[in-house]
Amino acid sequence: MVSSVLVGSGAFTYEALATWEKLPTGVRLIECPGVAVDSKDNVYVLTRNPDHPVMVFDRDGSWQKSFGQGVFSDRTHGIFIGPDDSIFCDDDGTHTVTKFNTDGELLMTIGNRGQPSKKWGGEPFNRPTHAAVSPNTGHIFISDGYGNSRVHKYTADGQYVLSWGEPGIDAGQFMRPHNVVVDSDDKVYVADRESHRVQIFDADGKFITMWNNIHRPDGMVIGPDGNIYIGELNGMPGVDDAPGLGHRVSILNRRGELLARIGDPEEGEEPGKFIAPHGIAVDSRGDIYVGEVAFTIRGRHMDPPKELKSLKKLRKAG
After folding, report:
1. Counting Cβ atoms within 10 Å, is residue 220 exposed (0-12), middle (13-18) or buried (19+)?
2. Domain residues for 31?
3. I need a labelling partner for 273 at 20 to 30 A (CA). Which of 62, 153, 163, 288 fits?
4. Is residue 153 part of a domain?
């Protein structure tokens, strides 16, 4: 395998690395549903390895530590780092959102572990998918997710405020709210994955607009340049092997205009290709980190099952 390839163009040109993370002997990623970066450019990788659920690396890929053992199920799902470097993790297997500090100390749990709300009932939580924090108010917004079609808003100390959304494809409805981010104007962006769109709301859930033509938006983050970076999952059942449907990264400005799209029409583990982008992060230098659920989408169906590459780094060129 080649060590790296150049992808993208112009201001959005990157060196796609074959390998970035340096794992201790015997440690496996299994797969990486989420990735986030703190204020010091340390990279937090949410894995489905129960012995090392959250792995921490420096920006060069050197191992720092892991934490979260015993807290999560095998359905870890999303990770977000707030303005104060607090770490929020979503687990759709335990139906909780947990908050940690950078030492890996558990600070808060939202939701009742192992006690889902009624499916499609609208109450938090039934398999939540992601969390985000307002940089202005500290409010926590949670997409909920697999057994609900809702977004929930909480205070910074975990007190429930309000919810919005219901199953459907109209504005303000969701098929699968899979990710959420909040910008500096307190606009809330929700990746409505199975509707192939991003919906945008004010902080109280009032619909503003939507962006279409995004294939199964999975991972989503606001970069230091203010642009929205979106990891798109591959095709749906029946067309999941069709070229050009997902397994790519799209970069849009906050008007929803496409600036760049990175990835190959064919899926793969090689540099510049993806299998199943699920989580995404961008550090202060513009480097992109992509976590993939490659085992869930492909590896478990192989004979025999095989762990596939599930963590990619795109290093900003120039």
Report:
1. buried
2. 4-130+213-316
3. 62
4. no
